[in-house]
Amino acid sequence: MAGNIKGKKKEKSIDRPDKRKKLLYYNLRLFIAGDEPNSRIAKETLENLCKKYLYENYKLEIIDVVKDFKSAIEEKIFFAPTLIIETSEFKSRIVGSLIDKKKLLDILGLSETNSDK
Amino acid sequence: MSINNKRTLKKTPTYITGLDEILNGGLPYGRTSLVFGTPGNGKTVMGVEYLYRGAINGEPGIFLGFEETVKTLCENALTMGFNLSSLMKKNQLFLMDGKIEPDIVMSGKFSLKPMLSIISGKAKEIEAKRLVLDALDVVFGLLENPVQVRSELYHLNLWLMKLGLTTLITLKPREGYPGTLFQDYFYSISDCVIHLDVRQLDQVSTRRCRIVKYRGSDFGRNEYPFIITDKGIRLIPITKFDLRHKPFGERISSGIARLDDMLGGGYQRASCILLAGEPGTGKTILATTFIAQMCKQNEKALYLSFEESPEALTHNTASVGLNLEQFTTSGNLLIVGAMPEATGVEEHLMRLFDKVESFNPQHVIIDAISACERIAGKEAAFDYLMRILNFLKEKGITVVLTNQTSGKKSQLEISGNGISSMVDTVVFITYVHGEKEINRTIQILKARGSSHSNKIKGFRINDNGIEIYDI
């Protein structure tokens, strides 16, 4: 997934979320399937990203659908891994091993804050 | 497996009218079957009906659909009388939709493990025996490449085999794959493949169903027309595995003593009688005289009229002293008027079948089979009649057909629409031109399994009905 066409914008500026904007609180739920490679990759990627960008402003819950199929029914999860992001402003879901970090940041609303506004 | 060790495959009946017959009993038990077709061909209906009928017959089922919401699914099913939500409340059905939202973000590889977890978890919970995965192409279309499709399908199949559910997958063709590669993957994991399609013929659209493959089982190899009625899918095989016609019964009176004599004692119950003749010779009167006789004996008759409305028929026959109204009032007679052009062959068939099932007559009159050609041409008319006659003969119902012949070729046309092999008795009425008058004559041209008169007799209709006299 080569999505980094807008690579001209330097990533380092994302490091600090825009102070002018009120930082959202993120409710994150990652649905994984046991120790499947894709699930493992997604879990690691997400955990690292949370520490790096979201500081204390998030709650991450990892749900293993192999053990808990009822949660999968509740949220209509058919694919693993699936990440559900909930904030006071939006709800979104991403399917896949989260290999595209930029896409993920976009969805979290963090990449826009890096601009020269 | 050695030849001596021959076993028949265990089947799961679909309980869908006619489908189990061509599947030779049903779907392969505990295995995966595929219903394939383009949008609007009735795949989902087939899946829903399979589960519904299973559930009301004591086999709980699971439905995972990827195109429709559970709400619309339930609403649509209700138009066919399938109350899915009540079965869900009783835990005999579990319905779930996984409509893929257009704004879903894909990022990297994934597996279908949660879907499988849901299926096996729920299967245990409600002791499911049946599973439908509706529009699975939507799910597999999200996978990045054929290799992934094949690998996920492989896992899915293994999982399903382990669960032992009798599974029905519905699938649309998918673009972006070379040739039929996409469906080929699904074919290979399916033990039974059913094709559905809709075709336009003479401005009438017909749904067709065909079994493409069935591992380890015999099946009906033809294309079978089907329709979706307010009671679900109905399919009528033209050619079944065997003829199961009932033998003829006892003699029953035609309502005219002298005709009974000519026939060697009357018509035979459960036989097929053709009354042929030129226009105006009195075929309809002959048929209704028979009906009146049967109704008098408190038997039931269904009259399918392609030529006259029920009111016109009642009125016209009253002029020769036949009071049909008393029989329609008493519930012995049901007259159904139908315009041949109104609908297609299947619709006509189903209407008749439904009427026969609900009214349960001992005798059926079709007046006239010559009008059947107006439904959709010669071939369709033959198709239609063959299936009606097959159906009625299996039920042991006496059938009276009238057929209008014209002019000189009448001898050739008598049996009409090529159905002569199905006809047991032929009564022929014709005009004889005298010097100053035209007279009618009647004769028996064929009477299967019976001796009959070879004489030609005079035939007259007066205020008191039909009169047959020596000439």
Q: Can you put this structure into words, describing what you see?
A:
The complex is a heterodimer of chains A (117) and B (471). With 117 residues, chain A is of the alpha+beta class. Chain A has a single domain, classed as Glutaredoxin, CATH 3.40.30. Chain A is built from three helices and four strands. A four-stranded mixed sheet of chain A has the order 2-1-3-4. The radius of gyration of chain A is 15 Å and the shape is globular. The two termini of chain A are 29 Å apart. The N terminus of chain A is likely disordered. Chain B has 471 residues and is α/β, with parallel strands linked by helices. Chain B contains 15 helices and 23 strands. In chain B, strands 5-4-7-8-3-9-10-11-12 form a nine-stranded mixed sheet, sandwiched between helices. In chain B, strand 10 and strand 11 form a beta hairpin. In chain B, helix 7 packs parallel to helix 8. Chain B is elongated, with a radius of gyration of 28 Å. At the A-B interface, helix 1, helix 2, strand 4 and helix 3 of A face strand 6 and helix 5 of B.
